[in-house]
Amino acid sequence: MQISMRADYGLRAMIDLAQRAGHGPVLSAQIAARQQISEAYLDQLLTALRKAGLVRSVRGPSGGHTLAKAAEEITLTEIIGALEGTKSFVSCMINEETCQLGKNCAILHIWRQMEEASLAVLRATTLAQLAARQSLRQDAGMYYI
User: Fold this and answer.
1) Radius of gyration of the chain measured on its C-alpha atoms
2) Which helix (H) or strand (E) holds 31?
3) How far apart are CA 43 and CA 64, in angstroms?
4) For residue 26, which of 38, 36, 13 has the smallest C-alpha distance?
5) CA pseudo-torsion sign 70, 71, 77, 78
6) Where are the domains of the chain?
7) Is the Cβ–Cβ distance between 67 and 131 less than 8 Å?
8) Residue 111: which residues within 8 A CB-CB, separation 6 or more?
9) Which CATH number fits domain 5-140: 1.10.3080.10, 1.20.1290.10, 3.40.50.300, 1.10.10.10?
10) 3-state DSSP assignment of residue 56
11) How many CB atoms lie within 10 A of CB 113?
12) What is the Cα–Cα distance from 64 to 35, expressed in whole angstroms?
């Protein structure tokens, strides 16, 4: 499974929202600046995440974006699925009929094992875990006197 920059940027935006959960809506411009993502592209990502039920958007002067459910309830599988759709390591895993070797392929089993292992990690990892990890990394870079 190849993760695109679309998924990477979307995950970064979701981590940003998770870190600010409970503090009201967050403006796209603020997320874009912190995550170094074009605001226009971020808006496309947030639209896909909103349609998937992961983000709630509020219009108006006190508007912005929030998580639609608790970060502990959102897995990486949901986020990447909302942004990427269904993908596989190789195209023949999606449609075995297109494979010239079909069931005689010696490596198809390996591709399936790799994909299942990757999906297991994504299913087991929540947005809250990533947000906590990100906060630790940010705090480690701070010096206090």
Assistant:
1) 18
2) helix 28-35
3) 11
4) 13
5) positive
6) 5-140
7) no
8) 88, 89, 90, 93
9) 1.10.10.10
10) strand
11) 10
12) 16
Q: Which residue type is seen at 7?
A: A
- Name the 3-class secondary structure at 74: coil
User: For each of the chain's 145 residues, which pLDDT tens digit applies?
Assistant: 667 899 999 999 999 999 999 999 999 999 999 999 999 999 999 999 999 999 999 998 888 999 999 999 999 999 999 999 876 666 666 556 666 666 677 787 788 888 899 989 999 999 999 999 998 876 655 554 5
Bridge partners of 58?
Answer: 64
- Coil, strand or helix: which one is 86? coil
**pLDDT tens digits, one per residue of 116-133:** 999 899 999 999 999 999
**What is the distance between the alpha carbons of residues 107 and 88, in angstroms, rounded to a whole number?**
14
Encoded tokens for 26: 């967050």
Q: Which residue has the tokens 């998937």?
A: 52
Residue 55 tokens, joined: 């983000």
Q: How far apart are CA 16 and CA 7, in angstroms?
A: 14
